[in-house]
UniProtKB/TrEMBL annotation:
This is Mannonate dehydratase. It comes from Psychrosphaera algicola. Catalyzes the dehydration of D-mannonate. Its EC number is 4.2.1.8. PANTHER family: MANNONATE DEHYDRATASE. Its cofactor is Mn(2+); Fe(2+). Belongs to the mannonate dehydratase family. The keyword Iron applies. Pfam families: UxuA.
Length: 154
């Protein structure tokens, strides 16, 4: 982190995706308390979070609006995805306004965080699905996004 601090770099860890064990491998960033432990372990302004709404939101015990408010000063990137959770703990991607997470409330909390900090948080809307007629077309980059300050990422 000292090198990141000296370079003005903001590091942001992405949560586990999926947020449950696969092949016996443990998950380390799946809940609000996991994210808090990472922030507490290295109390540097360069140590931050990617708020992936799909990954955190795949767990019904994570309240995304609460998390956005709690970590407002440490969210350095947002991945806006929504999911529908199944009774067995599995989940699948959904349209932004048709899933199990409060995307409107999340956006409101993030906009409030931006206003308070004066910093624009880069946001990517989803995994960038291609429409059938876009496959193989020149210039189509669903993974490319532009921040509100016109910075290009991707």
């Amino acid at each position: 982190m000292p090198s990141a601090e000296s370079g003005g770099i903001k590091m942001c860890i992405h949560p586990d995706d999926p947020p449950f064990s696969l092949f016996g491998l443990p998950r380390v960033v799946s809940t609000q308390s996991d994210a808090q432990a990472i922030i507490d372990a290295v109390p540097s302004p360069s140590n931050g979070l990617t708020l992936c709404a799909g990954s955190y939101g795949a767990r019904g015990d994570n309240d995304l609006v609460c998390m956005a408010n709690a970590f407002a000063d440490r969210i350095y990137f947002v991945h806006l995805r929504n999911v529908i959770r199944e009774a067995d703990g599995s989940f699948f991607e959904s349209e932004h306004l048709c899933g199990d997470n409060d995307m409107v409330g999340l956006i409101q909390a993030l906009l409030k965080a931006e206003t308070k900090s004066g910093i624009s948080i880069p946001m990517r809307p989803d995994h960038g699905h291609l429409l059938a007629d876009e496959i193989g077309a020149d210039g189509v980059k669903p993974w490319l996004f532009v921040s509100r300050t016109n910075e290009r990422f991707g």
